[in-house]
Amino acid sequence: MRAMLDVKNLDRTLCCILVDKEEIGSVGATGMQSAFFENAVAELMNLTGEYSELKLRRCLSRSCMLSSDVSAGYDPSYDSCFETKNAAWIGAGMCFNKFTGARGKSGSNDANAEYMAHVRKILDDKKIVWQTAELGKVDVGGGGTIAYILALYGMNVIDSGVAVLNMHAPWECTSKADVYEAYRGYKVFAEDACM
Fold first, then answer.
1. Helix axes 36-47, 53-61, angle to 10 degrees
2. pTM for this entry
3. 84 DSSP assignment
4. How far lies 143's CA from each of 33, 121, 136, in Å?
5. Do residues 129 and 39 touch, judged by C-beta distance below 8 A?
6. Strands 71-72 and 94-97
7. d(C-alpha 82, C-alpha 77), whole Å
8. Tens digit of pLDDT for each residue in 53-83?
């Protein structure tokens, strides 16, 4: 949200969607499976005199998104839970998970290659430090985010965030450098995200 608020003078609309209940399936009135986001966009379009069902669908399908969530940081104490060549590393920059899910890619979003290339170019051009990862070894780690729900609109979306050690434990740990690179990454994405 801070990165979005620091972006100035854009010709398009930015939004930050803050939802909960992700850990139990994004259900309920405040989860991403509710219609609140779609309804809010429809209301904004209506206020400008531009609402129609077709225009709403076009708006959502032409949107680009970074779905912000954390990734499991490689923990040498639990080496067997990670595929080391595909793990997120603490201190290696903003992290992208092309797909999440469990049992392979079940229940996940899978960002298309063109969108991933577009995001990489934006970051590389601004010298943002980034990495790609998966959420742990297949059939050992895994988990879902809200990305797949937004992708149902035809929206370009990929999971992004920072690596976290001890995810969901009482004492989680991240790198301050990774958090800063994520801020920089979200800011340049907001400035140059349209494909």
1. 120
2. 0.91
3. G
4. 17, 27, 9
5. no
6. unpaired
7. 11
8. 999 999 999 999 999 999 999 999 999 989 8
